[in-house]
Design brief:
This protein is mainly beta. It is built from two helices and nine strands. A hairpin with a 4-residue loop joins strand 2 and strand 3 (44-52). It is globular.
């Protein structure tokens, strides 16, 4: 069976619970550091990568799909734990969390394998995950060995 980007997810989050859903779907997304960008004039941070299709895995498919994760209303971005001169370093995202400061403002944390982290200071939580394709057979990503669904 073939799948197109039209089969993909399009999720929005405006609160911590919605972000938890997006975090679950972006667990183990493979990203190159060079594919993360901050656009301060637009108050936007975005990244593109190959997302492991957890829903497809339940149906026996082991695929990754090209996805874009976008955060709007971003005031500042900082990071730690990245190798400074390796823009093509492959990263494995473990999860997303949100901590309120002065409601509705807060900090979004993007945690990666090997301890790297991105910190987004946001006016409020406004996140979109959008599958844009293509689909490809899943392969291992740095910091994460591929585990078959039936062995879990």
């Amino acid at each position: 069976m073939t799948h197109s980007a039209l089969d993909g997810l399009k999720l929005y989050a405006l609160d911590r619970e919605g972000l938890a859903v997006i975090s679950a779907h972006t667990q183990d997304i493979c990203i190159k550091r060079a594919d993360m960008t901050y656009q301060p004039k637009q108050k936007r941070f975005a990244l593109a990568g190959m997302r492991y299709d957890w829903a497809g895995a339940e149906e026996g498919r082991e695929e990754r799909v090209g996805s874009v994760l976008r955060f709007d209303r971003v005031l500042s971005v900082s990071h730690a734990g990245f190798k400074e001169h390796e823009p093509n370093e492959m990263l494995n995202m473990l999860g997303l969390t949100f901590e309120k400061t002065e409601a509705p403002s807060g900090i979004v944390f993007l945690a990666f394998a090997d301890g790297a982290i991105v910190r987004l200071e946001v006016e409020c939580l406004e996140v979109e995950l959008n599958d844009v394709g293509p689909r490809a057979q899943a392969c291992e990503c740095r910091g994460h060995r591929l585990t078959r669904a039936e062995s879990m």
